Structure formats: C-alpha cells, structure tokens
Amino acid sequence: MIGGEPTLYRNLSELMRQARPLGLEFKLVTNGRRLVALDYLTELKDAGLNHVSISVEGARPETHNRISNSSSFHQVMRAIENCAKLRMNFNTLFTIGPDNAGEIVESAKDLARMGVKHILYNVGLPSPGNQDVGGGAGSIHPQTAASKITEAYLQLKSLGIKVKFNMTIPLCLIETPMLEVMLEDGYISSGAHCHIFYGKGVVFEANGNVLPCTHFVGHPLLNLKTLGIQTAEEFIKLWYSESGLHGTFHEALWKYPHPKCQQDCKYWGECVGGCPFLWVHFDPNQVFGKQGEAQP
To answer: Which part of the chain is the Radical SAM core domain (predicted)?
Structure first.
C-alpha cells in the first residue's frame, strides 16, 4: 500500500481486515507521520499489517523537511521508535537525490544507532508526469549516484553498518572489481528487479485505475470500473492473454538501452540497464559513453 500517503485513507484498517481472509498480505509504504500515534499503529498491526517501510529523506531535519515539504523529521523518528516498540517488521527507505546524496552515511549511522535492522536506499528517478518539474528535476545523474553509493559502501563497511542499495541504475556504472565485491557483500541488489519486466506485479488505485508501476500515477492503462471488471479471472485474462497488456509491456521494455548492455554485460537480465524511466530524462550515450565507458 503506497501513495500519495496511504495512512490518510480513513478505512485502511477495515480494508485489511476484509482482505486478509483472501490470503493477502500487507506492506505499508508511508511518510510515518500518523504512526507517531502508537494506538493507530497497533490498530493497523492487529488488522493484518505485515510490514512497514518508512520514508526518510535526509539525515538532518532541515534536509528531510525541505525535501518532504513538511516539518516531519522528528515525527518520522518517533514512528521508527514505535515500529521497534511493537516489534513490527519494518525498514527505512531513503531516496537518493541531488539534495541529500551527501547524507547517505550520516543517515545510516543514525538509523543504526536507533537499532534499525533494515536500512534501504533507492535512487531518485524521473517521472513521466508532472510530479517532477521537467520530468527529472528531483533525479540524480546515474553516474553521480553510482559514485555516491560506492563511497558510502566503503565507509559503511568499515564501520560494520549493513545497508542495501536498490540498484535502479545500470550496474556497470560501478567498476567491475568493486561491483563484484559489493554484490558479494550484499550491499547492492543485482539489478532493478522491476516487476513490470516480468509481469509479476500491478498497481491498483482506489478509483479503479490500473498502473504498471507507481511511477505512472496520472497515466493509467485502464480503469476497472469503466470496463466493468469485477473478478480476478476477468483481470488476469485481460493482463495475460495473447494480446494482453503484460505482453505489450514485455515487448516494449526488453530492449538494450545502450550497445554496451548487449556487448559485454554478464548481468543482463537482472540489471536490465536500470529503470527505463532513466532514459526518459538522461541520454544513454552520455551515461554509458559513446564507446561504452561511463561518463560523469
């Protein structure tokens, strides 16, 4: 359950109670502000909440508050404490962008001191809509992200602090010897593992809109209510049939963003050249280099 902010939905706990008998499990991606109320978090847990992912946008209050356009840093820290108090399964999620890339290590140290066991980092991505001015104003250059991730890995490993970077950028932007060590140590994922490549996930909005992933907010593929789709069987037929939507996306996405991916990438199939939205905003030739070498 992701937003917007899903905790603003007033029937959230009731939704989980009704859906739990269907075998659904629930992960909540949240800014954490409502979780400062321990009784509310307890209500969600009792209703069936399995996991919480709390967004942390900076190590310093001023950074987090500026990026989130709120005064919520201390509320987020309290939400983390409450999740630990209730022994919830949870992680923190820090999205690396131009304004907070220098605070990766500092944030990990602070969260580790708080006892957070699962400290995750994403890379900010361009948007196809209007959420980011110009489609990529909040996005960090992939090569800069690779450098920052490598620097943070070296420092955090020396401190004995374990984190995980979700690699939505091309793996080859990190030099091969270092990349192999980072993968072996488990500090980075082996690729984006984006569900739209494999047809294993889909996003449903409360109004019936269906999106291939959360980055498509405002750009739905279809609306369940408009088409009169009410059962799982009807949707699966639409999604997986011979001319279904998954096949259309599979054909469109499984392409090499740059010749380097085709020529000498032993990670192709896991890496997939990073999130496709990177190439909405960034030129692959400038990222990979015309001859295949990464460029700053």
So the answer is: 1-166
Q: Give rounded-to-5 percent helix, strand, coil for the chain.
A: 45, 10, 40
Give me 185's structure tokens: 């140590």
User: CA 88 to CA 62: how far, in whole Å?
Assistant: 28
**Angstrom distance (rounded) from CA 187 to CA 185:** 6
Spatial neighbors of 182 by CB under 8 A, at least 6 apart, are 150, 153, 174, 188
Burial 197-224 (b: 16+ CB within 10 A, else e): bebeebbeeeeebbbbbebbbeebbbeb
pTM of the model: 0.90
Using the predicted structure, report yes or no on whether residue 204 has a pLDDT greater than 80.
Answer: yes
Closest CA to 153 of 192, 179, 187: 187
3-class secondary structure, 29: strand
Catalogue all structural domains in the chain, each as residue range(s) with its CATH number: 6-197 (3.20.20.70)
Least Cα distance to 6 among 167, 204, 212 occurs for 204
Cβ within 8 Å of residue 183, ≥6 positions away = 190
Please give the single-letter amino acid code of residue 115: G
The whole-angstrom separation of Cα 119 and Cα 165 is 9
Alpha carbon distance 90, 158 (integer Å): 25
| Residue pair 45/86 in contact by the 8 Å Cβ criterion | yes
| Other CB atoms within 10 Å distance of the CB of residue 67 | 19
- The number of angstroms, rounded, from the C-alpha of 243 to the middle of its chain's C-alpha atoms is 29
Distance CA 197, CA 135 (A): 22
5, 56, 78, 98, 179 from 10: Cα distances, Å: 11, 23, 21, 34, 45
